[in-house]
Amino acid sequence: MFTENINSIEILRFENLSGYSQITQFISTRKGGVSKPPFDTLNISFKEEDFTVVLENHKRLAHAVNVPVDNFVFCRQVHSGNVAVVTGQQRGAGVYARETALIDTDAMITNEANLCLSVLAADCVPILLYDPAKNAIGAVHSGRKGTVAKILTNTIERMKKEFGTDPEDLKVGIGPSIGSESYEVDTPVIEAFAASFPGNNFIQMKDKTHGTLNLWEANKFLLLTAGVQDHNIEIAGIDTYTNTDKFFSARKDGLTGRFVAGIMLH
């Protein structure tokens, strides 16, 4: 990834997606907004903070990435495996109120222009997908539960069905999220991953009931299993838990804001 500073707003972009003029893609940080602690400063989520403050952050981010704020599409994320196909009718969902965001959804796909698919995160894994052959995009929120539910697999399968996507054509960016050294989990999580990923070692055991979970490698495994080419996958490798000066981390800070990963076709 590389960083841009635009009007005091710090934006990250994936290297492997940056060469395509057909898309805009970005990940925000916590810098450049108007939120007060503990949401300081570029909080994009309406869930815990005053509406007018978050809306101002939406507008500032939209200006920085040169995307009309009404083109953003948000979803009410519930750590599910659910994927929504977004059309022009959903343009602006969740921009002015959380209640208008797409319900019970953790991934969105589209092949329509001017829809900025936007997923929120603060330790969970934001993932952006682009199919340059079919000119289709996806944005995925894949935390611990979403990874167990294989939401990334569901997203690719839905892109195949809706747009005729060949996974070998997909370019994918796995964004900043909690790193394996920071993410300690206990028996229920260990058992859930053992059931969903038999024979894999995405959890490094520390003792009989605790281990550390590598969500980056688990989601990369899902991509490779779906047919995505290894050289088409970029992992940011940025641990939100140890970089709270730049990113929100719910596990580190408890009550905090959310940053956003977005992708849009022109």
TrEMBL record:
The keyword Metal-binding applies. It comes from the Bacteria. Belongs to the purine nucleoside phosphorylase YfiH/LACC1 family. It comes from Candidatus Blackburnbacteria bacterium RIFCSPHIGHO2_12_FULL_41_13b. One of its GO terms (molecular function) is S-methyl-5-thioadenosine phosphorylase activity. Coiled coil: none annotated. This is Purine nucleoside phosphorylase. Keywords: Hydrolase, Metal-binding, Transferase, Zinc. The keyword Heme does not apply. SUPFAM superfamilies: CNF1/YfiH-like putative cysteine hydrolases (SSF64438). Signal peptide: none annotated. InterPro entries: Cu_polyphenol_OxRdtase, Cu_polyphenol_OxRdtase_sf, Cytotoxic_necrot_fac-like_cat. It catalyses: adenosine + H2O + H(+) = inosine + NH4(+); S-methyl-5'-thioadenosine + phosphate = 5-(methylsulfanyl)-alpha-D-ribose 1-phosphate + adenine; adenosine + phosphate = alpha-D-ribose 1-phosphate + adenine; inosine + phosphate = alpha-D-ribose 1-phosphate + hypoxanthine.
